[in-house]
Each structure stands twice: as structure tokens, then as C-alpha cells.
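Archive entry: two folds, one per protein. Generate the first.
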Amino acid sequence: SLYRKTYIVKNILVEVHNEEIGEALQYIVPKKRSVLLLSYFLEYSDADIARFLNISAPTVARRKKAALSELKLLIGGTYHAG
């Protein structure tokens, strides 16, 4: 697909090529969306995300869990990673 949506996390551009996910992500608040983008699209570890965003590891985990739940609701629970 030619779809591409770019999000910015601090100074890093993150491209999303899945239209369903790319469009749904815009409805997730930036604090949570940033964690998802860094984790799933750039493959940062939770520890790396914590350092990069200057937040605690438990905060990373909490935001990621909340953001994933929201994303699943937004796309109807039909998306399965892998």
C-alpha cells in the first residue's frame, strides 16, 4: 500500500504504513501515542523509552497498556500483530 502517515516523537519521525492503525493513532493522546510509536514502530525497549521521554519505566508500561487498549477499541479489536 502507498499509505504513509508520519508522526513526530520529540525529534524523531515515525512512519506508519498501515492505514487503519495510522488513522486510529491520531485519536490517542500524544503522551500515550509516543510510547506506542517508539515501542512498536521503532522497537525501543521500555527502558529506552523511559530514558528518551524522561519518565519512569512503570509509566511507560502503564501508558503502553492504556494506548493499546484504546487502539484496539478504535480499530474494532480486529488487528492482530504478527
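Generate the second and append.
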Amino acid sequence: MQYELNVEEVSQIRRSVSFTVPQGVVNAELDKAYREISRTANLPGFRRGKVPRRILEARFGGKITEDVATDLIQQSWRQASADFDLAGQAQVEDRGDLKRGVEFTFTLGVDVVPTVEAVGYKGIDVPFKATTVSDEEVEAELSARLAGQARFGEVTDRPVQAGDQVLAKVNFVDGEDVILDEPGTLITVGAERFYSGIDGLLEGLSIGEENTGEATIGAQSLREDLRGRSGTATVTVQAIQARVVPELDDKVAKALGFEGGADGVRPALRMEMDARGLESARMDARVKILEKLVASHDFDVPDALVQEQFEALVEEMKVRRTYAGADPRSVQFSQAELQNLRSRGRFAAKASVLLAAVARQEDIKVESADVDAKINEIASMRNQTAAAIRGYLQNEGAMPTLELRILEEKVLEWVLENANLTEPEVVVESEEVADEAAEAAGSEE
């Protein structure tokens, strides 16, 4: 569609876009609208399609004029918007009257992503220190993984301890009222969910031994009929099972996911932990890069970009709290939390603009191989096929967002690879601060 366009830069993030639509286009659009209404208008005394134009103008002129004006604005902006890096929706700031034989003028206001020249990102000083994994840390990691392979096994050479599962005969009475008479039931000592209050009587007993004492079933018992009941309990140990942590051998090594046998577990664990430490250090360095870039560039970002980042952060926090056990329908945030998230949203919006600037200046782009690799990574994490992940992203229209995230990751990695890595500063407390910390620590003991 024909129009004349004039763009005024109101600010770094705001444009005023003025359109002038020629009278010929206005006339053609009005004629088209009247032809369409003539085919459908049902007016007394006239056949459809034969209603005179002057009658249609008198009856429908106001609505047709408004509809044509709206349509011309939408068509014009749809064509022109491709030339703008938009941030939010355009708003009509001024609009002339739409009349036959007269050009139609209107002005739209729109926020745009600011064009920023990124500086100081090459050779940027970044604190970086990858931790060295000690032998003690490797052993602790191995112990934790072996504990994950622990299974309950029979114990015959010691008395009952907390954490054991005990097969016990249980008799529980209140006077002459028999509350419970179990010839054999499994009780977890110290974490019993059914007979809590009775399990304590088992601790210290060996197989075949008996103990009698007063007990009260806990209010959280899964046996509703027993909750809060008090009486005299007699327990007899019939069998003891305890969690047995396996010794490291080739079979256990394979169960832990290490194919090189028992001798290769510790070296492989050290490599894993070193890699995690390195990635953690790189992540910290990326955060420092963003902080330095944002702090060294002063520019505004449109509210729409901030809102977009804010909403993403809110959704992320909701997901985290849901994973922590909260009901997603009842997750709420305090005003202080929302203010913090909005501040972080503004930071993220500015960081995104700066990363885009570096990408443009260094000609860093997202290739199809990058997208394939990221989709494969997501698929592996979610235990799904790459085709399923790709289909979901395409159906949800989320591919552009994924590509943007990939681009930002590539830019951060490029800046880090070209950074000047420095030793992190050691923060030395003043004597006054140290004394206050020591005093506070002493008061807690």
C-alpha cells in the first residue's frame, strides 16, 4: 500500500512515526467498503446490491469511515514495522479525519530497542578462579555416591539402632483394652510413620529380646485409629535390617556409571568435580562480565523489555517454589520481592541489549548447528527425543526465543574467551568488623 513516511526520534527508545496516505488510496478503500456493505445491506424498499450510495453513506457512513481508517492504520503499520526493532505495541498519538478526496494522516508512537555501541568488552578484566579439588572432597563425593547404593540387609551381630528396620511383635494395651496386637510388623526406628512412639522401645534390643514401657502414638501417625492413643506397649525383636553401604568394587563401579572398574572411579570423579568447578567459575565470570558491561553503559530500555524480563523471572520463581513443594496456585510474592524482581528485570533487559550489540559488532551469529546442539541438550536433560523438543518449540512459537538465548550464550562465551582473567580480590575485614564477627559467633555458642 502506498504512503509517505516520516520518522522522528523522540528519544533513544521512542519514535514518532507519521504516515500520509494519498487520496487515491483513501477513495479506493472507501469505495471497496461501500461495495461490500451494498452486497449485504438489507434496507426496506431496496433490493440487496441496489441501495444507492447516498443512502448507504447516510445509514452506515460513520462506521464505514471508522473501519476504513482503522484498516489503513493497520495496513500501513504492518508494512512499516519491519524497519523497526520494536519493543511493545504502537499507539496512535494523532489521527486526522478520513474523507473522500483528501489524504489521510496519522501518527503512531512506538518504543524501540535502543541501538547501543558496546565498548570496553574486549580484554575486559574478569576475576576467575577455578577451585582445585582435594583428595578429601573426592572421598566425600565417593562416600555420598556409595551411600546412594545402600540397601537394607539382615543384621545379627548388634542391637537395634536408630534408622534400622525391625520386624517386631507388638502388643499395645490401655488397661484391659487391647489397642494393638501385631504378631509381626516392620517398624523403622526413629522415622516410623505408623507406630511412632512405640519405635523408641526397640532401640538397644537384640534379636529375641523384649521390652515393655509406656508409649503414646504420635499425632502424625498414618494410622488414624491410633493417633494420640496412650498405653503400655510390649515389643519383641524378631529380625533387624540396616542400610548397608557397599564396598567399592567393579560391580558397584558399574552401578555408579563408571565403566573403567573400581580403580578408575576416583580419577573419573576428580575429572567430573574439576569440570563442575571450572563451569562454576565460568558461570561466575559470565555474571561479572554482565555486571561490568551494564555498569559501564548508560542508556534507557523500554518498559516493554523490562516487563518481559520481569515476567520471565516471576515465572521462574514460581517454578522453583513449586519444585520445593509449594502449591503453584497459591504462590505469591511480597512487594519487596516484586521490586527486586523488577530491578533484576531491568538489569536483564539492559544486558540483553548490550549482548546484541556485541554480537552485531563482532558478527557473532546463531548457526543451525548451534540450534541442533541446544535442542539435543534439552532433549537429553528431559529424557525426550530431539524431534519432540523441536516440535514443541515450533508449535509454541518459541524458536526465536531459543535462538536469542543461544546467541547470548555465544556472545558471553566469546567475551570470556577474549577477557583478561585476573585473580579474585581477597576481601580483608577491618579489625572492628572481625571483632564484631567474633563476638557474634561467641554469643551464638
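Annotation attached to the second fold: The two ends are 79 Å apart (CA to CA). The chain has eleven helices and eleven strands.
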